Amino acid sequence: MSFSRRNGTVPSCEPCRKAKVRCDHEKPCRRCTRRGETDECLYHPAPLSRPPRDRKRTNSVPLVEQRSLPDEPLAWSPRRAHTAQQSPAQHADGPQPLGRENGEAASPPLNSAANNAYIDDIAAAIVHLHNNWALIDRVYRAFCTNSIKCLVPGDFSIAFLDSMSQLFRTYGIEHSKKSKVGARTAAKQVLDSTAVPGAAVDSSSTTETFIASCSANNLSAQTLGYVCNHAARAALVDDERSHEVFVEAMLVCSTKCLSIARDVAPRVDDTLVWLGHDNLYLLMAVKGDRDPIVWPRLGLLGSDLYSLGLQREATLTANAPTFLVEMRRRVFASVYHLDYAVCTYFRLPPRVLRKYADTKPPLDLSDRDLLGNDSEFTMATSRLTADGWSSDVSYSAATWARMRYFLGVAKEELPQFSYCPQPLSAENRDKLRALSDLNHLIWNSFPAHVRFNVDMWQSGLNPAHVDMLIVTYLSYLNTDLGIYRLLDENDPSVNPPLLSTAAEMLAVVIQLGNVRDRPVPLAYVVWNWGIPSVAVLTPALAARQPLPNGLSKAKIVRHLSVFASYLENMFQPGNANYKIAKQVSSSIVRTLDDILDEGGDKTYQISPPFGTTTPASSHASATPLDMTLGAPFPRLDPALGGSEGGGDGPEWPYDEADFVDLMMNIDWASVTNNEWSFV
């Protein structure tokens, strides 16, 4: 470049500056050459100046049965129009389009520079899909056929994939010499399709008409982003290491399509919520559950959910076909569960609460039954029990959505007690006991085939189904563990169920570790449910606490020993969680050595919640912790032989930090780099 900045450095070209990437300052630069943008590889002396008004846009390559486009430029931000208030009557009538009604722009059109940036991002996503089509076509279809975690039925997902093949053929992207030019032309059409309202959906709509409204000739940024996102999730299941670069590239493409759809689409629709939901799952699988971007991205998803009215039964069912009603209920159940799980790790209040919603749980229907014709759907619903469960031993995405929906009732109420003054009042203790009873009542109301038991390992069930049952069971037990932990601090009579629940959780984790070819990664289970149970059992053994009837001390010692070996074998030096795993493993081993050695007769005083009462003055104000994560690691009393850096007793990691802080220090990206993030 012939220009230079005031500091003497060479400035980047305009495309590289907008993309915020390093420019090699050639003319044209390599990036622009690679992307076919050599005519735009120029230095802009005043990039923040206002560009001229955009002219009316015309499409050089129209699609078959193209939607009629309005006359004004097709790029605006419906987010600016969200300030417009809707009356309660409008909400009761059904989902209202946010930002554009009767063909009128909701906010001023964006300039041509913004449109060009959108087109660049969409074209890049199309090129990425085309360049990796052989891989995508293989893993994508297998994932849709075999996965039990897909929120959107496989028929929809495969139809979206087939739309991409049609797009490649229509715009000549299959020919290498025309791929870049064809991709930009196709991107313009995708942007135009995104900027106009889709076909109206009513109770008479079929799955075919709904799919056609957002794919094929009407392919939008939402659908394009969904294909990118689904391809990445499929690649994670196929072989996550060898496809790492591909997965990250697809995550970028999916995220940009999601951003474009939120900026350009005239209203929030179902496909936008699907993309936001799956994109968040992929983000947590790649970046980790505790990545800082997860929290704000979850907020946008919740806003989309509320904008579509999925928290109100009257809204989501208004003039909608039965298959879409059930899919919306699945979406609400999944977001409801996901919101609580994410808020737990960030120690922030949940934003999607069932107490402020009246959405019914989804029926326990398979995707085939859901997408069948009216007679098939009626026949399938007639085989359900009175409360909506399948009478057959079958498992589907709706099964897990229902279980998470119901188990969330007790979880939703639990965090508020961590903000109550300590010690808990008699009224709050009674509420916690009632909450525990409710948790048990909900679990016992489930059909026998969805409640995990050890015999399921030899039952011939699909291992993926068994793993989902285990994860759900551990989630149920963890809620009980949080309740008992709160009660145990001032009520030693609760200690037996606390220890029994922790021992059961640890036993299930050990059972899962002995299973080969398990879909769920053991590291994920170890951190989420193994560590909380160990944080209860290890201090109880160190304090020589009597165990309740039915619990074998020898069995607990064996399980703790196996668990320590899990930590030592799974997290080697160089692993992001090696230090934490080493400290937890060392504290377990020291406790077991102290118990088994000849000189292990000392009893160390352990801080609450294990039977000792802390003066009320030390609890003048409660520390807001999420108790569903388990009890904090106890601290040894230095006056009785314990010490911070060593001593005769066991060493406890993070003796100045509570257990939640320990969980927050875990590198969740290395634990959840898979499809099992927040199952």
Describe this protein's structure.
The chain is mainly α and 679 residues long. The longest helix has 26 residues, at 463-488. The chain has helices at residues 14-19, 30-34, 88-93, 112-131, 133-146, 154-170, 179-194, 207-213, 221-239, 244-264, 270-287, 294-308, 313-317, 322-346, 367-370, 374-382, 397-413, 426-445, 463-488, 495-513, 522-542, 553-570, 578-596, 659-664, 668-671. The radius of gyration is 28 Å and the shape is globular. The chain has 3 domains: 1-48, CD2-Gal4, CATH 4.10.240; 112-382, no CATH class; 424-613 and 633-671.
Question: End-to-end span in angstroms?
Answer: 51 Å
Task: State the total count of DSSP E strands.
Answer: 0
Give the percentage of residues in beta strands.
under 5%
Number of domains: 3
Mean of the pLDDT scores?
A: 77
* Quaternary class: single chain
Q: Rg, please?
A: 28 Å
Shape: globular
Number of helices: 25
User: Order of SSEs, N→C?
Assistant: HHHHHHHHHHHHHHHHHHHHHHHHH
Q: Tell me about the biggest sheet? A: none
Contiguous uncertain segments of 5+ residues: 54-109, 599-660, 667-679
**Secondary structure: helix percent:** 40-55%
Task: Quickly give the structural class.
Answer: mainly alpha
Give a brief rundown of this model.
By secondary structure, this protein is mainly α.
Question: How are the elements arranged and paired?
Answer:
Blueprint lengths: L13 H6 L10 H5 L53 H6 L18 H20 L1 H14 L7 H17 L8 H16 L12 H7 L7 H19 L4 H21 L5 H18 L6 H15 L4 H5 L4 H25 L20 H4 L3 H9 L14 H17 L12 H20 L17 H26 L6 H19 L8 H21 L10 H18 L7 H19 L62 H6 L3 H4 L8
Helix pairs in contact: 4-7, 4-9, 4-10, 5-6, 5-9, 6-9, 9-10, 9-11, 10-11, 11-12, 12-14, 14-17, 17-18, 17-19, 18-19, 19-20, 19-21, 20-21, 20-22, 21-22, 21-23, 22-23
Main location: nucleus
Organism: Acrodontium crateriforme
Pfam families: Zn_clus (PF00172)
